[in-house]
Amino acid sequence: MANSNVAFFFFFALLIGHGIVEIEASHHVYKHLLGLLSSAPANQPYRTGYHFQPPKNWINDPNGVMIYKGVYHLFYQYNPKGAVWGNIVWAHSTSNDLVNWTPHEPAIFPSQPSDINGCWSGSATILPGGKPAILYTGIDPLNRQVQNLAIPKNLSDPYLREWVKSTKNPLMQPTAQNKINSSSFRDPTTAWLGPDSKWRVVIGSKVDQLGLAILYKSKDFVNWYQSKTPLHSANTGMWECPDFYPVPIHGQNGVDTSLNGHYVKHVLKVSLDNTRHDCYTIGSYDNVKDIYKPDEGSVEGDSGLRYDYGKYYASKTFFDDFKNRRILTGWINESSSVADDIKKGWSGVHAIPRKIWLASSGKQLVQWPVTEIEKLRTNHISLANKLLKGGSVIEISGVTAAQADVEVSFEIKDFEKAEVLEPSWTNPQLLCSRKGASVKGRLGPFGLLVLASEGMKERTAVFFRIFKGHNKYVVLMCSDQSRSSLNQDNDMTTYGAFLDVDIRHHKLSLRSLVDHSIVESFGGGGKVCITSRVYPTLAINKAARLYAFNYGSQSIKISKLNAWSMKTAKIN
Predict the structure, then answer these.
(1) 61 is a catalytic site residue
(2) Are 269 and 304 in contact (CB under 8 A)?
(3) Angle at the Cα of 90 from the Cα atoms of 64 and 183, rounded to 5 degrees
(4) Of which family is this protein a member (predicted)?
(5) Beta-bridge partner residues of 15
(6) Is-contact 150 162, C-beta < 8 A?
(7) For the whole model, what pTM was predicted?
């Protein structure tokens, strides 16, 4: 892509010529919105200390996420008028480190016929000359879902505080000719350049229960036409928030979204509207035929691979060219009742940004919290070579258990004593529900009890069980919320996944980020991620406790455990 000033000004002139620049800017019309970001009620035991959330009201999907002039930009779906979904605008915050965030006035809000009934999800793309552009879904007066374009008004402003919309909006829309479902046509991806120098973008859709990644192409990012065939499709229901990007076959670096070749695989992620899960496949992209083909053996939908096996949805990645990494962001919705959400004055949190790359096996992705989050660590405590006998629990004291980062690795012996994995035990979430933390086994359950109360009336258990499978040992990772709160109005679903790790040659590792009402857990170095929302009534703030436990009959050794209190991030 050209970086010269000549190329940039030519491209910018081209956009003006196509009618993109509109006189109005969002902050001139909606200046009062920022004033609505006032503090929530004083007693807030479930507000997070270092996860992203505005002071009050509803948030959901992270939209366009990008880095511009060294500044990270997070755009997200926001209701400025309440703690339930509705009145959606594109709120906007910036950061120098993906940890501490400064809010700005909403970047995009309903102001044209093409988005007058809502500004829904979309993505950011960096155009030639380093110029950002946003494609987003608008809801028109007929309540049709259509695709729109906005660009920054002032490219010299690293905070991109003003955005203008194309007067040619909508650029893509359902018609009688294309037969696109007007109520299921949303969430454009980050665009990429093909070998013919045309831009491509994918939009989620469906026909009956056939999920579609509808492909559009453009020479100038303004005039788009639909490809004859979708990029991909599968019978998994509506595809929301699609994401399509390359990952190198070797190493942990990220690459630009337009890159293709024998040295990369491609990832297609879709958010399944039917089940609210973010699922992905890994495969190959033919950028001449514009067809994506999952690798042989890939499973589409809920039975296949997921970014996160807990509360995690509507995620988005972006390429951080400053640090050569791909970053994943996602929405953690509530597990509390709507009445409780309204009472506390807010709903929704974003997960800690994660670096994401292809595992050495080539069969799945690996995720890990960005290293910047470690700057919040304080009050470090550690254990090493600690034997956990069967039935034992040890308290990890010296850290603020309600706001902590814990890393632990376990060493297992006596594999022959593992329980036999029955052939019918193929659903890991169901297996975790049947064999929760209170159900004693042989090799497991062992792991961490977080946000636990004194006396254990409340606790969230993140743990492993080891089974003897066919010619291998099988590791089950669970997050058991069944006793997380005495408030029975909460969703206390137990989550689980099988972890692909050879425990005969590798220690079993677990990391949990604990933040008042969130537990983000990473097993096997990030091969399995499970996020839980919990709302204890006793284990809050200073009353929360942290334990390591082993309720199996066989002893387990803690090879090493490191835990830190986490300082509070600056999120105004």
Answers:
(1) yes
(2) no
(3) 85
(4) Belongs to the glycosyl hydrolase 32 family.
(5) none
(6) no
(7) 0.93
Give the whole-angstrom CA distance, residue 141 versus residue 113.
6
Assess contact for 269 and 242: CB atoms under 8 A.
Answer: yes
Mention every residue, 6+ apart, whose C-beta is less than 8 A from residue 422.
Answer: none
Residue type present at position 321: D
Give the number of other CB atoms < 10 A from CB of residue 67: 20
Backbone angles phi and psi of 302, in degrees to 5 = -60, -30
Let me know: does 271 contact 278? Beta carbons within 8 Å. Answer: yes
- Encoding tokens for residue 290? 């514009």
Write down the catalytic residue from 61, 115, 273, 320.
61
Distances in whole angstroms, Cα of residue 374 to Cα of each of 173, 368, 563 = 44, 12, 11
**In the numeric block, which tokens belong to residue 416?**
């022959």
